[in-house]
Automatic annotation (TrEMBL):
This is Molecular chaperone DnaK (HSP70). Pfam families: HSP70. PROSITE patterns: HSP70_1, HSP70_2, HSP70_3. Belongs to the heat shock protein 70 family. Keywords: ATP-binding, Chaperone, Nucleotide-binding, Phosphoprotein, Stress response. InterPro entries: ATPase_NBD, Heat_shock_70_CS, HSP70_peptide-bd_sf, Hsp_70_fam. It comes from the Bacteria. CDD domains: ASKHA_NBD_HSP70_DnaK_HscA_HscC (cd24029). Gene3D superfamilies: 3.30.420.40, Actin, Chain A, domain 4 (3.90.640.10), Substrate Binding Domain Of DNAk, Chain A, domain 1 (2.60.34.10). One of its GO terms (molecular function) is ATP binding.
Length: 530
């Protein structure tokens, strides 16, 4: 059965597979579009609409429409209520996934079961696990979750096969941004380092433009109170997105604005747009500079290519800023579709690897799969043998008592794993108990939450815990070994060992806000919605 690649985007999503000719191809949705807006309209208690029509419904019933939900995925305790039923970011994302799958099944007649879903490179373990849970709620088997720039680099590598290359991927999507340095060695992909902000994306450019349009209207019609109207603001949001796209190819555009019979015509130039969004673009350049410093620390100072990924990179100011600040001459390779196509390639590689196991070099097994897929034996061997190596997106550590606090009530976060450590990795550090006659040891596991690693708790978030209990009374300062192991898929395992007794506590950190029971309930809720 085919394994599909899904780009579950903040503003748009799409699904792809590798066709019979061995090429990755995006499958169009039911209205013939390659990308589907990641928007859900809860039309009634029993029916939802996803995509273009849902986006249009925001003009009429904005209180029943959800967009940009990817920015909230993995957030603890967040729910939205529609028609008396609570929905989580994971279950709403599942509705988008289900719609993509229905389009494929409707056009191909083939059941979609196994998928690979992409995530921003800077997503932490909570967001990655929540994305996987969204797939499960949609009734899918999520074979793997792969960083978006890795998928884009895979597609680029297929487009331009050749020798070893180092690539900088600048990925500005609708709601997230990251920069990633990647080495391409033959068919293998190795992430050198990554950085980003999953609260920054093209939607923020839209918001700036919508604000400008609102100000222009109010200046002409100060008595209208238009900016107090939710309907008017929703209309401005849609107009702003279309205007942004128009200014990608035009120097200026006239825009008509309407509110309760009042009409204002205003001209917005590309210069106006770039001026009001300069701060946003500057943030992407600062993150890029930080990424280049990380790469230089790892011996990478030359880039064979700079790839622009994500629809928002079509804005001319992006390439111009990269040229002006860093001297780069970036290239665009299907920025809207590259991630989905790369995910399809990764999905096929995962499928072949699972089917062939250790028999990649075994001609009989490989030949059989090659005949079944209509591919050459060499192509199957290359894809099954492809290696993808990623890095830790953030720092991970444990809570320790602040040595400068005489009352020992404050704590800091001591990071065992630092951001951009190649995976898999295994690190052990020794800590000491903080109290006399201690009978149990609680290990709190924390993840970096800010842009830069910090030992301050407010710049981190707790993602799990482990407990060693039923210990004999121990003197203060008793040694405890803590081991962090993160596998090649980003799953974190933590083991704590009390040295004197040898007692251990082990936990696998596959963080998600939903437990198995909640996932099953969400799956039933989604299944009831037509």
């Amino acid at each position: 059965m085919t394994v599909y690649g899904i780009d579950l985007g903040t503003t748009y999503s799409c699904i792809a597979r590798v066709d019979d000719a061995g090429r990755p191809a995006v499958i169009r949705n039911s209205i013939g579009e390659e990308s589907t807006p990641s928007v859900v309209y809860f039309e009634s208690p029993h029916h939802v609409v996803v995509g273009r029509e849902a986006k249009n419904a925001a003009l009429v019933q904005p209180e029943l429409v959800v967009s940009l939900i990817k920015r909230d995925i993995g957030k603890s305790g967040m729910t939205l209520d529609f028609h008396g039923t609570e929905h989580t970011p994971e279950s709403i994302s599942a509705l988008v996934l289900r719609d993509l799958v229905k389009s494929v099944e409707g056009s191909t007649g083939e059941e979609v079961r196994d998928v690979v879903i992409t995530v921003p490179a800077y997503f932490g373990v909570a967001e990655r696990e929540a994305t996987r849970q969204a797939g499960v709620i949609a009734g899918l088997n999520v074979v793997n979750v792969v960083p978006e720039p890795v998928a884009a680099a895979l597609y680029y590598g297929v487009l331009k096969p050749g020798g070893d290359r180092t690539v900088l991927v600048f990925d500005l999507g609708g709601g997230t941004f990251d920069t990633t340095v990647i080495r391409l060695n033959g068919s293998d992909v190795t992430v050198v380092c990554t950085d980003g902000d999953h609260g920054l994306g093209g939607a923020d450019w839209d918001t700036k433009l919508a604000t400008l349009l609102g100000e222009r209207f109010t200046a002409e019609r100060p008595e209208s109170e238009a900016t107090e109207s939710e309907d008017f603001l929703q209309d401005l949001g849609l107009l702003a997105e279309d205007l942004k796209k128009a200014l990608t190819s035009r120097q200026s555009k006239q825009q008509q604005l309407h509110f309760r019979g009042a009409r204002v015509t205003t001209e917005v130039s590309r210069q106006d747009f770039e001026t009001i969004t300069a701060e946003l673009l500057g943030r992407t350049m600062d993150i890029t500079a930080r990424t280049l410093e990380l790469a230089a620390d790892r011996g990478v100072r030359h880039f064979d290519e700079v790839l622009l990924v994500g629809g928002s990179t079509r804005m001319p100011a992006v390439a111009e800023a990269l040229r002006a600040r860093f001297g780069f001459h970036p290239k665009v390779h299907e920025p809207d579709l590259a991630v989905a196509k790369g995910a399809a390639l990764f999905a096929l590689s995962e499928s072949l690897r699972l089917r062939l196991g250790d028999h990649v070099e075994g001609d009989g097994a490989v030949d059989g799969v090659a005949r079944e897929l209509g591919m050459s034996t060499a192509a199957v061997q290359t894809m099954a043998g492809r290696k993808v190596a990623i890095v830790t997106p953030r720092a991970f550590g444990v809570a320790v008592v602040d040595p400068d606090d005489p009352e020992e009530k404050k704590f800091l976060v001591s990071h065992l794993l630092v951001a951009n450590t190649p995976l898999p990795v295994d690190v052990t550090e020794q800590f000491k108990t903080s109290a006399h006659d201690q009978r149990e040891i609680e290990i709190q596991i924390w993840e970096q939450a800010g842009a830069l690693a910090s030992e301050r708790p407010e710049h981190n978030k707790q993602i799990g815990e482990a407990l060693i209990n039923r210990l004999p009374p121990m003197p203060k300062g008793s040694p405890v070994d803590v081991t962090f192991r993160m596998d090649e898929n980003g799953t974190l395992n933590v083991r704590a060992t009390e040295i004197r007794t040898g007692k251990t506590a082990t936990t696998e950190i596959k963080i998600g806000d939903l437990d198995d029971r909640q996932i099953a309930a969400a799956r039933e809720t989604v299944a009831r919605l037509s």
